[in-house]
């Protein structure tokens, strides 16, 4: 079917799974924030319990509707817990996505990512680098 095409080696596959260097929106000005991120599967995160049950509704919204699913109806807009749960979910995703530095290292250093940085990480995990251009 694909004549002349070779199957990827396990070594190459491992290398790809290590993630890639991604530029996140800056805290201020034009400085570059380059980090290594990987694209974890939300479905496997749910299956393995890395996304707690109380965040599954939010995970479903983000997975099926992307960032447009953050507040999908008037009930969500009027529920103050919606943004809290969404933020907790984005933090779960960051824990899996950050390779270098790790999200734990970022938090231990007292660094709080901005909203645009959190959303950029989520956007990268779902769609890759091409969609991050709108965040820069």
Helices and strands in order, then pairings?
Layout: H1 10-17, E1 20-24, E2 33-37, H2 42-47, H3 56-65, H4 74-78, H5 81-97, E3 98-100, H6 103-108, H7 115-127
Antiparallel strand pairs: 1-2, 2-3
Q: Largest sheet, order of strands side by side?
A: 1-2-3
Listing every helix as H and every strand as E from the N terminus to the C terminus, the arrangement reads HEEHHHHEHH
For the sheet with most strands, the description reads: 3 strands, antiparallel
Compute the CA-based radius of gyration: 17 Å
Regions with little confidence, pLDDT below 50 for 5+ residues: none
Helix content: 40-55%
β-strand percent reads 5-15%
The assembly state of the depicted protein chains is: single chain
What count of helical segments does DSSP give? Answer: 7
Approximate shape? globular
Structural class: mainly alpha
Mean pLDDT across residues: 80
Number of strands: 3
CA(first)-CA(last) distance: 41 Å
Number of folding domains?
1
Task: Explain what this protein looks like in three dimensions.
This protein is mainly alpha-helical. The protein has one domain. Helix content is 48%, strand content 10%. It contains seven helices and three strands, in the order αββααααβαα. The protein has helices at residues 10-17, 42-47, 56-65, 74-78, 81-97, 103-108, 115-127, and strands spanning 20-24, 33-37, 98-100. Strands 1-2-3 form a three-stranded antiparallel sheet. α5 (81-97) crosses α7 (115-127). It is globular. The model has no long low-confidence stretch (mean pLDDT 80).
